[in-house]
Amino acid sequence: MKRLHVHVAVNDLNQSIGFYSALFAAQPAVVKPDYAKWMLSDPRVNFAISTRGREPGLDHLGIQVESADELQEVYARLREAGGNIVEQGQTACCYARSEKSWIDDPAGIAWETFFTTGESTSYGDGSGEREARIAHQKQSACGAPQTAPVAVASTCCSP
Length: 159
What we know:
By secondary structure, the chain is an alpha+beta fold. Helices cover about 20% and strands about 40% of the residues. It has helices at about 15-25, 70-80, 125-135, and strands at about 5-10, 30, 35-40, 45-50, 55-65, 85-95, 95-105, 110-120.
């Protein structure tokens, strides 16, 4: 069974944990100094917040799967959707080990598809996410690439 993933970048983690805990009527399943995550069953969503995003607000969306077979099914959907797929492969990110790929939707929103294979003791270095984001660098209103890549501490995510 698949689960929607939403990652929001925040300025104040503690304030945001309080807000989302009240909104979801649940405490986060994971809390780290720079990250928190709720694994909700109604609605079925992996909702994460961190202080590691480019700027506050929606950082990216995703689809989390529960098996390698489901991941291959979602990867086939990515190929059908078209666009530039960035295959990140195995990575440590958001205190988890996962296999993932990235694609941007027509509006430029980054989507990650991933299968979590275990836990990680660190957030991860973000190298794969930075490469994925640079490959998906947004165009300016005039159609030219932005002059400088956006610095991303790490924008991955989640078990």
